[in-house]
Amino acid sequence: MVGVLLEESVPQEEGGMVSAIETETKKKSLTPGKLRPRAGDTLFPTTTLAESGLSAQGRTKVKRLHVLIYGPPGTAKTVISHQLPNTRTLDFDDGMQSVEWAIKAGVLKRKLEEIVYRTILPPKNARSGASVLDIATDTLDEWVADEDIPPEEWDRPYPQFWDTLIIDSASPLTDAVILKGLKENDRLKLSKSWSQYREGGVIPMKQQDWGSASSLFSQFINYARSIGKNVVLICHEYHNTDEEGNLLSVDPLLIGQLRQKLPGSFDEVWYTRVEGTRQEPKYVFQTTPDPKHRLRSRLGCLDPIEDTDFSKIKRKVARFYGVDEDLLWVAAHGTKGIEEAVKEEEEDNLSRI
Question: pTM above the 0.85 mark?
Answer without folding.
Answer: no
